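Input chain follows. Return structure tokens only.
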Amino acid sequence: MNLRQSWLVFAFGSAFFAGLTALFGKIGVAGINSNLATFIRTVVILGVTAAILSWRDEWRPASVIQPQTWLFLVLSGIATGLSWLCYYRALQLGPVGKVAPIDKLSVVFAILLGVLFVGETLSWPVAIGGALILAGSIVIAVF
């Protein structure tokens, strides 16, 4: 499998598991505080990730990780945590069929942030796809 096919497999896996996340999260957050539900989810993620790191023998000393890498991973972790807290609260309050598509506006934000901050090129296919995601989210949220 070449590199292009490899990232596609993982990207589709991400989308599939994100879909399951919405469904299981909606069911799991019923009758529990959404912040506590997020905490439980986070503990499970830590355990699964630690098991994968151990199985693949990928643990490394913290000292070999560059300070800039630490900074951006910590910032990413904070952003992820805030996203999850908002997501679970939204799932608790709203229908999964509306919450999940609005959450996918993250794609539009990621495209814009990639162009603005890391110099990615905005191609026509990416711009059109992002616009369609935006339009679809608006249609789902409003109607």
